[in-house]
Each structure stands twice: as structure tokens, then as C-alpha cells.
Amino acid sequence: MKKTHATLFLILSFFVSGITLGAYIAYSNASTNSSFLSVADTGRPDMSLFWKVWDELDDKYVATHGTSTDKVTDQERIYGAIKGMTRSLGDPYTDFFPPEEAKAFEEEISGNFQGVGMEMGLKDDVLTVIAPLKGTPAERAGIEAGDKILKIDDTVTLGLSTDAAIKLIRGEKGTKVKFIIQRGNKDPFEVTVVRDTINIPTLNTKRLDNGIFLIQLYSFTDESPRLFRNALREFMLSKNDKLILDLRGNPGGYLSAAVDMASWFLPQGKVVVREDFGKDKKEVVAKSKGYDIFNDNLKFVILIDGGSASASEILAGALSEYGKAKIVGEKSFGKGSVQELIQVSPDTSLKVTIARWLTPNGKSISDEGIKPDVEVPMTNEDVKNGKDPQLDKAIELLNQ
Can you name the CATH fold of 203-338+354-398? Predict the structure, then answer.
């Protein structure tokens, strides 16, 4: 993902009519009765309805609950209108960020922020936990991938975008936020989490029995390709041919990181992921850089679950379809859309879905997710008892 006009896949993912900033500038020089932005004059929709509502609100609106129109600036109303325009698309990953939200989003993608440490998205129009990040307050409080968030403090989440939810969850270190959560078919229950500074973890390595080498990858950050390269070097020095890559609970990150990692296992020029831009636009493909350092003797298993999303799905899908790795675990989250971050003004930005991801064989990640070759469920009882049947199955397959 680039840092300006960036291709994003964070689930921060977080998930009426409108007007552009240019239109606001034009309004200052136009009367209400003018044919402002008429279709005949500009080819754009007639904006007279917008300005009529604007003036009616100025003239008649009476604030309640101690609020006043004097406390809402014209610029804030414009921001609200633009947000309404993005939300009318029905896409939880397309949103406009006014100054305060733009700053918070930049902090999040930099990998350091204050909150509870979990990725979220809309699944079937319900705010859903993609994954709690490793070692964060959310994980320690027992929040799990797949949990449905019904309330954040006193705010019901029905109809709430992911970015609006993130704004409610963020807060100063040491303060508390309360969630009403539904897990599966169980009754809703309350979880209170104490906010902290979140440093997004990246990677860990372990040597298991029989010399099996385990790489646990928690996110796809700027640093991930370098850390992954070092982990592979450590693996090769171990003189073993059995590798497990654990992508469970990994909500994604930079596309470039996923492509770089896939390149260690694929010849140059092999397609890692396809980007479908729709509207008769040409498909764009991301291809392997061709590091391809492993021979056919490598025994390789990738672990995924419902918390594996976006970049995790790209990497697992590509290596599975080329026969480089066997996938074990549970079906992935299914977050296969591409967002571009556009700086609209010096202090505002627009995150817009510009494409969808397809596997090398053309399967839609959003529609289908990544299905494991060997499906192994992980129950709450397994977690409580310190068991890991998915890892056990991966070890079993590698030792065959």
C-alpha cells in the first residue's frame, strides 16, 4: 500500500445526497434561486434541492437537547453532507474523513494509536470483529473473531459505519469502553475493555517438535517484508524442510507486503492477485518478484481462520492455488476489496473502494473467502484448555 493515494486493506475497517467542496465554494457566489449546477449547464445533477434544504434548515430548525445551529459551522455541515454521499453507496469501506477523523486514521495505519486493539468490518450489515490483535486489551478481555458488536457504550451499532464505530472506541489510555456482544447463537453479554496504547505486532518465530519451523504473522505492515525475510533465513539455517505460516487472526495490511512474501515461493511473473476495477476498466495484476528460493521438497502448511482477512487471504489464496502450500483451519473472513486513500484537502481525506481482489484463478475473495484444504474447527473449550487442534493437524500433515 502506498502512503499517498494508497491502496489500503485495513478492516478498520471499519464500515442522502451529498456535495463536493468545490460546490460549496461556488455556493458563496450563487443565489438560492439560481440554476446552480444544473444538468443542462454542467452535465452534473441539479443541486438546487440541496441548497433549498440548506436554507430551510437555516430558517426553521430549532435545536433540542441543548444544541444549537450556532455550534455547527457551515464547514461541518459540508463535511456531514459529503459523509452522507459516501454512505449512500452502501459500502462500509468507503468514507470521508474530516480533520479529526483523518488524523486518527493516519495514526492507525502508522501502527501506533490508543484504543482496544481489534479490527472490525460489516458482515451481513452487522458490525463484526475480524480479529483482536495479539497482546492487546481486546484480546485480554476475551473478545474473539466473529463477535458481533451490538452496542458501544450507549450507542446502538445498527446502521453505524466501521469508521464511526472506531471513533467511538478510540480514547485515552486508561479509560474504559463497554461493548454489548453477541457470540454465535448465545445471548448478548457485556464486555468492558480498558483502552491502552496499541502497537500493532508483526511477527514471531518458534521451533516445534521434529524441527518444524513456525512463523506467526500478525499483520502486514511496512516492516513485514523485512521481518519475514529474516524469519525465512532463520528457517533455512535450521536445515529443516517443514514450515508452518500462521495467519490466524491476521486482518491484513499492505498489498505490497503480501506480494513480496509470496515472491519467496513463486517464480517471477506469476500472478499473486488480480484487481478488478469494473466498469470496463482494464484488470491490474500484481505479480511475483521471483525470489523463488524453495525447491519442491518444501513441506508447507498455512493456518487460517475467520480472523484472516485481506492481505492474509491474498497470500494464502495464491500459494494454495499454485500448489505451494496446504491450507488448514477455517474459512477466512472474506475482505476482498481495494481502498485508495485520497487527500481531498490538507486536513481531510477520502477512503474509497476502487476495486475488488480476485485470486490468481479469478475467485472473488469477498464473495467466497479462502476455504481450507483441511477444515479444522477451533472451539472455545479448546482455547480455555490450551489446545490447538488446527496447529496439531498442520504438524500431523507435515510429519506424514
Answer: 2-enoyl-CoA Hydratase; Chain A, domain 1 (3.90.226)
